[in-house]
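Work Package 3 (structural annotation) set out to generate three-dimensional models for the target panel prioritized at the project kickoff. During this period the team completed the workflow that converts sequence records into discrete structure tokens, so that structures can be stored uniformly alongside our sequence database. As a representative example, we reproduce one entry of 388 residues exactly as it appears in the project archive.
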Amino acid sequence: MTIGIDKINFFAPHLYLDLVTLAEARGIDPNKYTKGIGQEKMAITPLTQDTVSMAANAAEPIVSKEDAALIDMVILGTESGFDYSKAGATYIHQLLGIQPFARSIEIKQACYGATAGILMAKDYIEKHPDRKVLVVASDIARYGLETPGEATQGAGAVAMLISSNPDILIIDDESVAMTENIFDFWRPIYSDNALVDGKFSNEAYIKFFADTWHEYQRRTHASLADFEAICFHLPYSKMGKKALLPVLEEADETTQARLLANYEESIRYTKAIGNIYTGSLYLGLCSLLDNQDKLAAGHRIGLFSYGSGAVAEFFTGRLAENFKTAIRTNEHQDLLANRTALSMTEYEELFKQKLPVDGSTLELDSKDDTSTIQLTKVTDHQRHYLKK
């Protein structure tokens, strides 16, 4: 029996800001964004979208009625949840009509949370091979207007259905996790925006990748030549390459060329959406699967998950026989093609908008939101959603 990702889909809000527009407004050379960090656009959420609605929008197209009856767990990985007690997964469970006798939980460890959920799901399916687990990564990356991290914001969600005999990616058993208590990136409960030590965060990311890869190599005797591609957690599209290049020196020229070429295919969606925290690794996987037409069943993919603070894991998977027919390439590309660009004025006004925190009622106008599931009202400290 094999276990892994049977279905995968991502969602991004219908609004975005072009980073050339941002650079020009901030008096910065656009090349600093488009070439320096490799970003082109960043997704922006209207008030009608939050971590729950984006997660549900990502999952809704891949959860059939038959799936909903077989899902025993709904796991939401997020670091931008809006309730310290109630899991966002409980809303998702309801919005998708999943059978009532299911666990619904939320996992937090910066950008690593969804990976923890996938590996938990794998363990569950091993004991319950006829059941399924829904894992969703959903986040809104905010650093504030006119901050150093403004160009690395974004928003989106990736949903994955984990099952036995999966159609997309068979997850291998061996993996290497690593933890260190560091302050490279964090967000205290009293802050709306994250705090970042940018230089240290980059250094920590690079170190964690090298350390987990070399420990994986020691345990398994694998080499880079065994991998068709390696996907990375991507706070911005150049970050993974910074970690990959020093390790690539171990490989022959053919392997180096292949991994670098496939890395470029894995970052296309991140360039267009920005940082989506827990979902960014899996957005990269979607990008690789959708854009690299030379992939074949049996090819091994490495995956590096990094959550600041910090927990990382290097794990691997093999492409399943039916992956080419199971991915949603056309839907993903249509989603990105049909978004609306914001002006700087519109972006800044939207960024400053907030939901009430005093229990008052706010009815939201969702006529411009093209998504299926939306936040429509806040009343008595409760959020209410509509599924069109």
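Residues 198-220 form the longest helix (23 residues).
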